[in-house]
């Protein structure tokens, strides 16, 4: 998994005054487990776009950390 | 604190007055229009390094990201305000409505401003800026004028967009408001006869045209921290339409 992805997730959590996420795996669900609401996901999208140059929500809903990671990997190969 | 303010339609008229007022408030301007006017160039000379100009045709909806936002307004630039001022007026009777002209007007007045708003909100999210968005609307939305049905509909769309933007992003401190301007003596209204102007003036409490400087001062207020509790509103600066 891209290590910067975990850092970006924690940045969004920090803005919500939440501690860094622990035990995040590819299966971790963004909404249910990390507690990200729609505005938090929008913020995460921008942080990922700034870091990796890919808009991860541009083509539909994303549920898990692994799905985000795959989109970043795919964009990097283009 | 200095702010970076994006303003469209800065070459003349109200947009130029807003740029001048924003610079006078001590903030930086990122101005957009198709051409760099002598007046805006003079503002640039008078405020070294604080008045930036980006030439772009707002009718080019599909180029907004690649040719306006990415080169000139990178995500890393903290933006504190966006003034959606540029617009065109296609006036005619509804009975003569032409689809191509309607579409061209919606692209400049509505679609591109919405896309810029998307980009501006993303920048504000990244930089954690509680920014302010101001759309310039028109009194024609609220009174109705013969010949302005199509134009007024673009402004009505912006008022609705602004209201929901305010609801959606208020949680992050981002505000959105409209300034509803009355009739002003600018290039946009140059086609009116003296008689038509008189008629419009008589429909206001102050019996005169709206001053662009008064509209600009209201915009500056909405951009500033003094307006921190104002969002989702339409502020009428219209000589008191009656
Ligand atoms: N005048 C009135 O009576 C009145 C009343 C109520 C509301 N308003 C509103 O006030 C705002 C300002 O209008 P104004 O009276 O100052 O009009 P204006 O003198 O015609 O100025 C319009 C500005 O928009 C820019 N613009 C137009 N089309 C553009 C395009 N495709 N791409 C980029 N820039 C473009 C123009 O610059 P370039 O030509 O250099 O591109 C110019 O700087 C508008 O939103 C208008 O609807 C006006």
Brief summary:
The complex is a heterodimer of chains A (78) and B (242). Chain A has 78 residues and is an all-alpha fold.
Q: Any overview of this molecule?
A:
The complex is a heterodimer of chains A (78) and B (242). Chain A is an all-alpha fold and 78 residues long. Chain A has 3 helices and no strands. Chain A has one domain (3-76): Non-ribosomal Peptide Synthetase Peptidyl Carrier Protein, Chain A, CATH 1.10.1200. Helix content of chain A is 53%, strand content 0%. In chain A, helix 1 packs across helix 2. With 242 residues, chain B is an alpha/beta fold. Chain B is built from 8 helices and 7 strands; from the N terminus they run βαβαβαβαβααβααβ. Chain B has a 7-stranded parallel β-sheet with strand order 3-2-1-4-5-6-7, sandwiched between helices. Classes of the chains: A mainly alpha (78), B alpha/beta (242). Chains A and B meet through helix 2 of A and helix 4 of B. The structure holds NADP nicotinamide-adenine-dinucleotide phosphate. Residues 9-15, 33-35, 57-59, 85-88, 108, 136, 138, 181, 183-184, 186-189 of chain B line the site of NADP nicotinamide-adenine-dinucleotide phosphate (NAP). Residues 9-15, 33-35, 57-59, 85-88, 108, 136, 138, 181, 183-184, 186-189 of chain B line the site of NADP nicotinamide-adenine-dinucleotide phosphate.
């Amino acid at each position: 998994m891209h290590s910067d992805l975990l850092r970006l997730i924690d940045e969004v959590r920090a803005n919500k005054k939440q501690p860094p996420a622990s035990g995040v795996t590819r299966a971790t669900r963004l909404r249910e487990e990390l507690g990200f609401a729609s505005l938090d996901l929008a913020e995460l999208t921008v942080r990922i776009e700034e870091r990796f140059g890919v808009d991860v929500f541009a083509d539909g809903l994303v549920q898990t950390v692994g799905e985000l990671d795959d989109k970043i990997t795919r964009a990097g190969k283009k | 604190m200095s702010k970076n303010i994006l303003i469209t339609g800065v070459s003349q008229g109200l947009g130029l007055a807003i740029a001048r007022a924003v610079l006078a408030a001590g903030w930086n301007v990122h101005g957009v229009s198709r051409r760099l006017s002598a007046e805006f160039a003079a503002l640039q000379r008078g405020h070294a390094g604080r008045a930036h100009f980006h030439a772009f045709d707002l009718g080019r909806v599909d180029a907004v990201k690649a040719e306006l936002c990415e080169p000139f307004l990178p995500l890393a630039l903290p933006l504190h305000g966006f003034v959606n001022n540029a617009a065109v007026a296609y006036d005619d009777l509804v009975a003569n409505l032409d689809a191509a002209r309607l579409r061209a007007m919606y692209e400049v007045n509505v679609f591109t401003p919405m896309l810029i708003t998307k980009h501006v909100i993303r920048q504000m999210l990244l930089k954690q800026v509680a920014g302010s968005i101001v759309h310039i609307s028109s009194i024609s939305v609220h009174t109705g004028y013969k010949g302005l049905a199509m134009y007024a509909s673009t402004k009505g769309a912006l008022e609705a967009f602004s209201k929901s933007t305010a609801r959606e992003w208020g949680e992050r401190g981002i505000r959105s408001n409209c300034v509803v301007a009355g009739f002003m003596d600018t290039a946009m209204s140059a086609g009116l006869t003296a008689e038509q102007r008189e008629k419009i003036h008589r429909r206001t409490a102050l019996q005169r045209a709206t001053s662009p400087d008064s509209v600009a001062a209201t915009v500056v207020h909405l951009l500033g921290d003094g307006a921190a509790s104002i969002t989702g509103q339409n502020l009428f600066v219209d000589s008191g339409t009656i």
